[in-house]
Amino acid sequence: MTWVAIAALALGTYAMRLAGPLLRSRVTVPAAVERYLSLAAVALLAALVATAALLKGAEFAGWARPAGVLVGAVLAWRKLPFVVVVMAAAATTALLRLLGVP
């Protein structure tokens, strides 16, 4: 039964990905709708980052994780290489946890 579900999801995903190029010339979306869709994508990404940075399960994750995310965000904003951003964020979180910050 699991393989049937996996196959159905794979086919559905492929169909959705194929529908974009096939229907692009047939469906027109107003410029206002395109703008709202791009804003919705940004809002969804911001909500995902906020929940991942602040929560562990249903509880507050402590101050070390948000501090690491903040360091990473600042370095990414300064356009540093991705590896540097990730390493600095992880090091900040690890150092704060080593110092006893939850």
UniProtKB/TrEMBL annotation:
Keyword field contains Transmembrane: yes
Transmembrane segments: 35-55, 80-99
Entries under Pfam families matching the protein: AzlD
Keywords of this entry: Membrane, Transmembrane, Transmembrane helix
Protein name listed in UniProt: Branched-chain amino acid transporter
Source organism of this protein record: Virgisporangium aliadipatigenens
